[in-house]
Amino acid sequence: EMILLQSEVMELKANPNKHARGHVVEAKIDSGRGAVATVLIQEGTLHKGDPVVCGVHSGKVRALINDRNKPVKTAGPSIPVEILGLTGVPMAGDELIAVADEKTARQVSHHRSQKQRMMELAKSNRISLDNFFEKMQTQDVKSLNLIVKTDVHGSIDAINESLTKLSGDEVKIEIVHSATGTITESDISLAAVSDAIVIGFNVRPSSRVQDLANE
Fold first, then answer.
1. Which alpha helices (DSSP H) does the chain contain, by range?
2. Which residue range is the domain that position 105 belongs to?
3. Do residue 111 and residue 95 come from a single domain?
4. pTM for this model (two decimals)
């Protein structure tokens, strides 16, 4: 009752007269029905036959099943519904959107799949201290790019000089960037584009920055 009262006071309303948009609650493969996704519609109205994109998958809604296991023709805002007709099984939390036609759905799905593959490839090729020496043995890795962060400004030059002196015939050490202060999101972004490793001397990243680095 409190939720209903609060939604009424805040005038929380969803427009049912637009292309449907929602999120996957759960998904599975059914031996008789193929990919089945349970979706909570948040905006618009989903119709049987609508072309949709869900995560990296697409499809045409072949059937809608409500929470009473009955087939329905439409599902509006705040309605959970099982969807049949997707080309694959999406992840929980993936967004579902209805689009104008199947061609658009396939194009969006293809673009998302390509982007996901590129991200996975970039992640697998990322240099870290853990895999650097392994890459030296198996790949033509001749340089190690570093981003250096310290707690004292006066120590930057000494640390940079000590690190560059470690360069040898096999590997050349390059200092991409060095500064005083904590490790920031900008440092992680720079490391990603320059294929560098971030090294902190007496400084630590926040949990948010650590999570970003782990991605």
1. 2-9, 102-125, 129-138, 156-164, 185-194, 207-214
2. 2-123
3. yes
4. 0.56
